[in-house]
Specification:
By secondary structure, the chain is α/β, with parallel strands linked by helices. It is 41% helix and 13% strand. The longest helix has 32 residues. The protein starts with a strand and ends in a 21-residue tail after the last strand.
Length: 469
């Protein structure tokens, strides 16, 4: 098939590249000339393991090309995919203006009947509205059917998710559109049926429901971690006991600094707004969002108490090292990342933050440019992980990159600043991946999320067994 993908962001680039690797001829377009030039040269503007090799291989084979607009020779494509951003508006609603702009461009150029596949995450009813929007804008004799086909790609594992999907959701009205998408995705179904065929509105809601339910599990475990701090319970024991119930399962039961990224925060807010529009309060989604906000505050207060002995104490002259700046491993995405929120909090209270991340350092600094402009030198990044610890008053682990999972704690202690007499240097494990006994053996104080600060009576599982969100 000849396929056009509108949008060379995270979803569009992975989708277009994946489809080209299945043997289709794919054109990916984007309005940013610099991004198109970068991609045309074989350079990837985002960090996603395995994606760069796929892009370069399919460009070499002539199946994948990039442009800033749809050229006339692609006007007879078999399908047009819309994979543009739908950022949150101030009220939490998803901004779908880019979706409608893409649909208008497709309607103007299409020379033959085709399907328009909306991969962007959009509110319920958007595909129906887009259908109405383009029905009057196409050439005579050209019929475009709008289909919902939401993406389920995890940043850091998107290539695997594309080629080995747990499900492919298709919301289509006609049997012809269903057949077309079934044929398109047939190579991904050789080991079994993965298509979930439904109507566009149900398909749109599936995406929001899935992300909100996962976010809900994360927030509930984070609330329980705060209760563990208050009661002396151990969140590891709670997680093992709860996750052993087959009705609940073990995934997404890890406490931490709160969720971030491009999906959970935005989609939870969008579902809240959708409920308000229709007069159906989304109580659990609202609580999920509130719990996540409170977890960020809780993390900041824990770090303050580590540094000053009290919450709200002065942080002037204190330096805090961050290991991990991306919202999760294997990505350079810092959107709504706990690191950004915590760095802003600490810097505004007089502390200096020195961060390290294998990929996300530049994006982290860009996200905090307003703080660094107001307080030059208050937030910096370094290229080597242990250099971030040099002279710091505390080390905070925020992202569970593999390179952080088995550090040399003796080296960490050597590099940290010497605390007041009678105290040991402190590390804060906001992902609960370190073994407290190893930290304590190196002469360091340990603080996790929802675990006793002197060590846990339940062994922390190997980091490789964690289900990353």
């Amino acid at each position: 098939m000849r396929l056009v993908v509108v949008g060379a962001g995270y979803v569009g680039l992975v989708t277009g590249t994946g489809l080209s690797d299945l043997g289709h001829e794919v054109l990916v377009i984007d309005r940013e000339p610099s991004k198109v030039e970068q991609l045309a040269a074989g350079n990837i503007p985002i960090y996603e393991p395995g994606l760069g090799d796929l892009v370069r291989r399919n460009k070499r084979n002539g199946r994948l090309t990039f442009a800033t607009e749809i050229p006339q020779e692609w006007a007879a494509a078999d399908a047009f995919f819309i994979a543009v951003g739908t950022p949150a508006s101030p009220d939490g609603a998803a901004d779908t203006s880019a979706v409608f702009d893409a649909a208008s461009a497709i309607a103007k150029i299409a020379l033959r009947s085709a399907i328009v596949v909306v991969k962007s995450t959009v509110p319920v009813g958007t595909c129906d509205a887009v259908q109405a929007h383009i029905d009057g804008g196409t050439r005579q004799g050209v019929e475009l059917e709008v289909v919902s086909n939401p993406e389920f790609l995890k940043e850091g594992d998107a290539v695997n998710d594309f080629f080995r999907p747990e499900r492919i959701v298709v919301g289509a009205r006609s049997e012809g559109a269903r057949r077309a998408l079934r044929a398109l995705y047939a190579p991904l179904q050789l080991s079994g049926e993965r298509l979930v065929i439904t109507d566009p509105r149900s398909s749109e809601l599936i995406k929001y429901a899935a992300n909100t339910m996962l976010a809900m599990r994360v927030s509930f475990m984070n609330e329980l971690s705060r209760l563990c701090h208050a009661t002396g319970a151990d969140i590891h024991a709670v997680r093992l006991g709860v996750g052993s119930d087959s009705r609940i399962g073990k995934k997404f039961l890890y406490s931490g600094p709160g969720y971030g990224g491009s999906c959970f925060p935005k989609d939870v807010q969008a579902l809240l707004h959708l409920g308000k529009v229709h007069g159906i309060p989304m109580r659990l989604a609202e609580a999920t969002h509130q719990a996540n906000e409170e977890q960020g505050d809780f993390l900041a207060h824990l770090v303050e108490r580590m540094l000053t002995g009290t919450s709200g104490g002065s942080l002037a002259g204190k330096t805090v090292a961050f290991w991990g700046l991306a919202f999760k491993p294997e990505t350079d995405d810092v959107r709504d990342a706990p690191s950004v929120r915590l760095a802003r909090h600490l810097a505004m209270r007089g502390a200096r933050v020195v961060g390290h991340d294998p990929e996300a350092g530049p994006n982290f600094l860009r996200a905090l440019s307003d703080v660094t402009a107001a307080r030059p030198g208050s937030i910096v990044t370094v290229d080597k992980d242990y250099d971030a610890v040099e002279g710091a008053d505390a080390l905070v682990l925020l992202t569970e990159w593999r390179s952080y999972r088995a550090p040399n704690f003796a080296e960490v202690k050597k590099r940290l600043a010497t605390p007041q007499a009678g105290q040991s240097p402190v590390v804060f494990d906001a992902r609960n991946i370190w073994r407290p006994s190893e930290v304590l053996a190196a002469g360091l104080r340990y603080q996790g999320i929802g675990v006793p600060s002197t060590g846990s009576t339940v062994a922390t599982p190997p980091a490789s067994s964690r289900a990353l969100s």
